[in-house]
Amino acid sequence: MYRIYIVEDDAVIARTLKEHLEKWDYDVKCAGDFRGIMEEFARFEPELVIMDILLPFYNGYHWCTQIRKISKVPILCLSSAADNMNIVMAMNMGGDDFIEKPFDLNVLTAKVQAMFRRAYAFQGQMNLIEHDGVILNLSDACVSFEGKKMELTKNDFKILQMLMENAGKIVSRDELMQRLWESDEFIDDNTLTVNVTRLRKRLEEIGITGFIKTKKGSGYVIQ
């Protein structure tokens, strides 16, 4: 069952789309927080996005650009302004197709089906972890926050992945060292401290501060 994320602020249109697409056995979620689209996107992990252009706070072009920084998921843009400039703008900002409002639900469904066929003949499933706006892409070892993106080293990625997978729980130093070095050999405990310190400094470069907490005598936690 493919997952579709609808970013549409008109509640009637959003509900109509959701009910119609669910009849085709799609798993559909409508945006609820128009300031936190990326957080919802990362949690739901959709395989297709239907994006309205005129939205509160930030327009659809903005969100297309943000999504494209972390994902190649197909995006179908909706707009009542279907002049050539708007269509070109939507494509340039990361959209894959465009449909004018008002639209026929059968035409929209046909476009959705075609986009799934094109995209997933070659594209694997997206794999993201999100917490407090921080998005970790497990496919390319990149971390994103508020539109900024950074590629992580192998060790930085392993540490952040383990902590984010266990958000709210303390991960012991022993568990982290086992994940990092995948060996029963003795590793200097200070080596882990150096790695975590370096990761914190790298995260600060893209505005992520105070994300990893130290629990003295226990380990580390993301709360």
UniProtKB/TrEMBL annotation:
Stretches assigned to the Response regulatory domain: 3-116
InterPro entries found in the cross-reference section: CheY-like_superfamily, OmpR/PhoB-type_DNA-bd, Sig_transdc_resp-reg_C-effctor, Sig_transdc_resp-reg_receiver, WalR-like, WH-like_DNA-bd_sf
Protein name: Stage 0 sporulation protein A homolog
Keyword Heme: no
Alphabetized PROSITE patterns for the sequence: OMPR_PHOB, RESPONSE_REGULATORY
4-aspartylphosphate: modified positions: 52
Keywords: DNA-binding, Phosphoprotein, Transcription, Transcription regulation
Transmembrane feature ranges: none
Record bears the keyword Ligase: no
Domain OmpR/PhoB-type: 126-223
Role according to the record: May play the central regulatory role in sporulation. It may be an element of the effector pathway responsible for the activation of sporulation genes in response to nutritional stress. Spo0A may act in concert with spo0H (a sigma factor) to control the expression of some genes that are critical to the sporulation process.
SMART domains in the record: REC, Trans_reg_C
DNA-binding region, residue range(s): 126-223
